[in-house]
Design brief:
single chain, about 140 residues, mainly alpha, two-stranded antiparallel sheet, 6 helices, about 5% strand
């Protein structure tokens, strides 16, 4: 027989340690007294409004922040194996190669004052010429 109370207490202990490592102090896991920094205020409200044994996936905080809270690499590919094969079966190195070439091809130099650009180019040339191994 499963001791649900013991499992909930174990989950509360794991949550406490996770939050403590994140810089959020919990004075009483059973009473939900959470002390958070101003940066964590939204998360604090999130903790206090989510039931102790409930999951956070459907909470308003998660739904509001999920799309922008995580950085997703352009190299990742979550397509099915079949779709990945149809698209050429490129591995991460091949995708990275295509991405840097595309980025270089699409690069547009920011506008710069012509006088400043000339001064910078002159400085670079003089600096390179002063270095014995610059081959300039």
């Amino acid at each position: 027989m499963v001791n649900l109370h013991a499992e909930l207490d174990d989950a509360a202990r794991r949550t406490y340690h996770l939050l403590h490592r994140a810089g959020i102090e919990i004075h009483s896991a059973h009473h939900h007294h959470v002390v958070a920094s101003p940066e964590n205020a939204a998360f604090q409200r999130h903790l206090l409004t989510t039931a102790r044994a409930a999951h956070f996936l459907g909470s308003p905080h998660t739904l509001a922040n999920f799309e922008n809270a995580f950085w997703r690499s352009e190299l990742s590919n979550n397509d099915s194996f079949e779709q990945w094969e149809i698209d050429g079966g490129l591995d991460a190195a091949q995708r990275a190669n295509a991405i840097w070439k595309r980025m270089l091809n699409e690069y547009e130099a920011p506008p710069i004052d012509p006088g400043l650009d000339e001064a910078l180019q002159e400085f670079i040339a003089k600096r390179k010429a002063s270095m014995t191994d610059s081959e300039v």
